[in-house]
Amino acid sequence: MLVKKLLYHFSLSFIALIAACQSKKKAPHEAAKTTDKPNIVLIIADDVSWNDIGVYGHPHIKTPNLNRLAQDGMLFTEAFLTTSSCSPSRTSIISGLYPHNTDAEQLSWPLPEGKKTFVQALKANGYWTGLAGKYHLGDPVRNDFNALFEMQWIDAPIGLDRRLVGDGSGCDEWVKLLKERPKDKPFFTWLASFDAHRPFYDDGSCPSVHNENDVQLPPYMPDTDLVKKDFALYYDEIARMDSYIGHVVKELEAQGVAENTVILFIADNGRAFPRDKTTLYDGGIKTPWIVKWPAKIKAGTVNSNLVSSVDIAPTIMSLAGLTPFKEFEGYDFSSMLLDTSKEIRDQIYAEDHFHDFEDYTRAIRTKAYKYVKNFYEDLPNTPSADIIRGRSWQSMLEEYEEGTLNETQLKCFIKPREKEELFDIINDPDELHNIASNVEYAEVLADMRARLKETRSQTKDFLPKRRTPDDFFRETGLPTKYRIRPRPSKAEYMKAAQEGRVLMNPDFKEN
Where are the transmembrane segments (predicted)? Predict the structure, then answer.
């Protein structure tokens, strides 16, 4: 009897051992399922406008992978950013704060030590966190990531456009990051493209898949050969980024984790063309926003409710089963992923600060109207310095000198600017006609003014006592004597101001 029992237990153990061995040979997705918490992949395009993606209605631009991402997930049609400037947008996203409360509201100011981030929270609660591509967040944030594959630059003289090591996309280590992650933890990755940031090289470094016939110009850009050439090169960079997104999706599928992985695709600000990037028009702050999560989101869903990039931090923490920080100024939009009737906000707030040139502008956007207040109306609406050094601006300058620009195209040059701007978004989606002085919209104007005043008060958004000197000449995009790389922090600027000093580049020499 004892022998039979021993043989019985031995046979059970042997069967269990065989089953365990066989389980090790199962498909990768079965071995990878170690948690119910979703993996989260945030993909951030650089300087890409929402309507330059095929699924948003562009008939010629080649974005098959983004189109498929939307077909398999949820497409947001009313998504916005808190600002239209690269690093302030990114620090706002990671901190869940409006730019003026990050203490990193100006271009290249780092997010200071002590500011909480959602990545920090994920890492502290069992997530593996990684970043690949463009960084632009400041040194204190580096420790939030278990792995950091930051794109590398080839040095260039101060004020001139630099080039990237590799193919110039900033995406070439995205898949490497996913491959090297530990497979026994839920993961978060911040995949940051450098496409489609200027400069646009016409040297074959980016595959040419578009031509001037594919271009759809917004009405505030002149229809010239140089402008269309610039747009075609910009489209090529979007297409290159799109191909890398396809590689990411395939890698997630190969690892067997695609089903429970949330992919969120956005841009940090709009296209790098006049009247888009660094402005608060929709060309600057409206963003493509696509979410794919096969386990939860119904494929092919369209969401037309308002959402802001300041909502990303609390939402990601909520999806990870964590309580969002009380400091966050955005709202959790996770309920919108399951039910498109859910609304979390009736307006968005956006702001513009120094980006190469001084500015201070604020905007309120509802589904129906946009209100913009230009606090420094004495300054022209100058685009960023890299735009000024590009083909489109040079073409606009020629048209300006010849007197052939229309009223909207002249807005980048005119000063003083209009103090207030009001647009009927439904009837004027390109924001061409300022109706702030139209008596028929007096009630709308009063309402939008009140919304702006209340938001500024609630978020403690105050006009600074001092203006920041321009880093470049507005006419040429070449550096001025104030040019500093890297730019000093807000604390360094404030200390200098208190001491009556102006920070200058120590290497600068007067001509």
Answer: none
Residue among 220, 194, 228 nearest 283 (CA): 220
Count of all residues that appear for the chain in the document: 511
* Alpha carbon distance 363, 156 (integer Å): 36
Looking at 285, 319, 345, the residue that finishes a domain is 345
Dihedral over alpha carbons 8, 12, 17, 22 (to 10 degrees)? 130
Could you say which of 311, 345, 379 is where a domain stops?
Answer: 345
Helix (H, G, I), strand (E, B) or coil at 131: strand
- Are 463 and 378 contained in the same domain? yes
Whether 322 and 390 map to the same domain: the answer is: no
Mean pLDDT of 482-491: 62
**Do 234 and 135 lie in a common domain?**
yes
Residues 306 and 384 in one domain: no
Give me the number of domains the chain comprises. Answer: 2
- Residue 450, preceding peptide bond in cis (omega within 30° of 0): no
How many angstroms separate the CA atoms of 83 and 209, rounded? 31
Q: Judge whether residue 306 has pLDDT over 50.
A: yes
Least confident of 105-109, 459-463, 491-495: 491-495
| pLDDT of the residue at 19 | 41
Residue 295 phi/psi, 5° resolution?
Answer: -70, -25
Supply the DSSP string of 262-296, one letter for each residue: EEEEEESS--SSTTSTTSSSHHHHB--EEEE-TTT
Same domain flag for 378 and 272: no
Alpha helices in 202-352 (DSSP H): 225-254, 282-285, 312-319
Question: Based on the domain organization, do 101 and 155 belong to the same domain?
Answer: yes
User: What is the percentage of the chain residues whose pLDDT exceeds 70?
Assistant: 86
Q: State the residue range of the domain holding 160.
A: 33-345
**Residue 266 belongs to a domain with what CATH number?**
3.40.720.10
Q: Measured in Å, how far apart are the chain's first and last C-alpha atoms?
A: 104
List the one residue out of 349, 123, 90 whose CA is nearest residue 197.
Answer: 90
Question: Nearest-CA neighbor of 335 among 364, 309, 310, 305?
Answer: 305
Query: 64: buried, middle or exposed (CB in 10 Å: 19+, 13-18, 0-12)?
Result: middle
Query: Running DSSP on this structure, what letter comes out for residue 75?
Result: E
